[in-house]
Amino acid sequence: MTILVGIVFCGSAQASDITDPVPGHPGVTYEMLLKQVMPDLAKDAGDNWTGTVAKLRGTDGKPGVDTPLTFGDVSALTVKEGGRKRLLILTGDSQSDSGFDAVLAAFDERLKLLDAMDVGGDRFVMLGSPPLLEIAPGTDAFIANSNHFNSNQNYTIETILFLDGGKLQVALSQFTLNQGMCGYEMRQNPVYKVRDDKGAKYRAIVDSVTQVVTHTDEECDEGTVLPKAGSHTYTEVYRWDAKKNAYVTHTNAMRHLMSPDE
Known about the structure:
Layout: E1 4-5, E2 14-16, H1 30-34, E3 42-43, E4 49-53, E5 67-71, E6 74-81, E7 84-91, E8 95-96, E9 99-100, E10 103-107, E11 113-118, E12 124-127, E13 133-136, E14 139-149, E15 153-164, E16 167-181, E17 184-195, E18 204-215, E19 230-241, E20 246-248
Antiparallel strand pairs: 1-17, 2-6, 3-4, 4-5, 6-7, 7-10, 8-9, 10-11, 12-14, 13-14, 14-15, 15-16, 16-17, 17-18, 18-19, 19-20
């Protein structure tokens, strides 16, 4: 029997000042923890924080280069790995010479650095929305959301990550687009669930995106072609592959989603 498990709420990310104390650890601040990743971290003349990110790998798994990072605040989130609590710290919005960068660092119960990754993919970045997914008893997956918007479009990349053996791993990344053009509006709404996968180390992750196109009464230029109004849900299932030690999918259902150039 296939069992679908809905999104499981296990906590929410809290935006904090970098000098705030870590709850439950008197005398320890987020600044002290991030110095395990960026030893040169310091406040600059503009009251922001700057530090050098040393060759962190990105969500694509490729190693990065030494990158100067400037940010204002951090977000913290507690998740579980194998029944043990892990503290995640994410630096706030930052743009560097190489693009958009954000440090995601994971710490164990003693606040020792386990791993760090550059999860920056766009102008704004955040953790914990939507809430966590329990991919195994006592193990959570979580979402890094990066996005930007202009006058009529909103671009979002949601990356689902988890900790395996103390290392940050990417399960999947999903791009969605919301836009309003002459004569129509289009929304792409992602939903993530998990389902039991017999014999697998981790539950399968079901990634569904519902695309809704509605027409408006706006008058457009002659010859304007509107996309067909309606709603359709596209679904990919990511399963744990023990040989690859990674989540994989063997379909490409999301190719039918409307993209910005359509």
